[in-house]
Amino acid sequence: MEGKRFIYLDHAATTPARPEVVEAMLPYFTESFGNPSSVYTFSQKNKAKITECRELIANTLGAKSNEIYFTAGGSESDNWALKATAEAYAEKGKHIITTKIEHHAILHTAQYLESRGFEVTYLDVDENGLVKLDQLKSAIRPDTILISVMFANNEIGTIEPIKEIGEIAKEHGIIFHTDAVQAYGQVPINVDECHIDMLSASGHKLNGPKGIGFLYIRTGLKLRSFVHGGAQERSRRAGTENVTGIVGLAKAAEIAFETMEERTKKECELRDYLIDRVLAEVPYARLNGHRSKRLPNNVNISFQFIEGESMLIMLDMAGICGSSGSACTSGSLDPSHVLLAIGLPHEIAHGSLRLTLGDENTKEEMDYVVDKIKEIVEKLRSMSPLYEDFVRKNVQ
Ligand SMILES: *Cc1c(COP(=O)(O)O)cnc(C)c1O
Q1: What is the pLDDT of residues 38-83, one digit of tens each?
Q2: Nearest alpha carbon, ligand 1 atom 14
Q3: Fewer Cβ close by (within 10 Å): the C or N end of the chain?
Q4: Ligand 1 centroid distance, CA of 254 (Å)
Q5: 194 in catalytic set
Q6: What is the DSSP letter of 132?
Q7: Does the C-beta of 205 come closer than 6 Å to ligand 1?
């Protein structure tokens, strides 16, 4: 841990860019600064570089390169997918199906569409966070135009049955979008095998730069421009290309897919080690999310009689970065919509801790983290009247 001042366990919020990513990006800020739309050779080289990046990313998904559209990140991709589909297919119908556990980039866009006259069904999930396929099937109506279900959840790590959902969507001729921001680079994805029509991803969740992402749009979808202006991104998303960002995203994707097997195997081992130790050594703790259908880097545990926020502050003092819900909801006092959707009562949802691992984490760090969690939980419980009460009633 030489030179390291803290243990970073919040990779679902964002990740550090790899040195190779930064190195690949640097020349495009300075000597290779040309606008890819210009006609001279100097700039055309950048156009060629973007094409190369688009191909590389398409290959990671089994897609075609002209189906990859660069955006400013996951939120923009999600907005684009939902709003453009709604607009383009409104004549066919105004019904959209999504889930209660989506990221706010989906949920708030869906609510916006509701205010514009669309009807949205928010599917429940089971106690592990899995979408219920029967409920999905019965939610489908003749006027359903879109199903949007996330590939994997950012809070509890549950990986959804995307292939089965894709098959159901295809059977009914409904467009299927998936927010794969957490899954892309962590699990293999093939858009044809899963019948995915649109897919969102973001650079900064896979050791790439922030402010860059992409939306995969299957050939044949009739979506109009999302940003009007120049002819970039096949005239669907105008604006001079974020060349540095695109180069960084492609480098990050290249490394993520090359190293996936080994990297995620190591992460799963660390994840399970952390989960097993905490559950064995801390009483009144429970794991949230599916035990095995789970992102390799996600740990989410609820501790009874504890405030997640207090725990985060004490972990911070011990040099540990974690999260108590999604980064977007911290700061508000509402418990996480995801934890409520899996059926946790408010007080238990409030006592939840999300730790998300990355490439650079080690077993020594996990041991340190478990020791700190034990100390902190004990301390917070010793100050809790609820816990005192509980112990008095239950332990003779
Ligand atoms: C982070 C995240 C987003 C938003 O991506 P940005 O690039 O930060 O806009 C969307 N969906 C999920 C599941 C995420 O985890």
Answers
A1: 999 999 999 999 999 999 999 999 999 999 999 999 999 999 999 9
A2: 181
A3: C
A4: 20
A5: no
A6: P
A7: yes
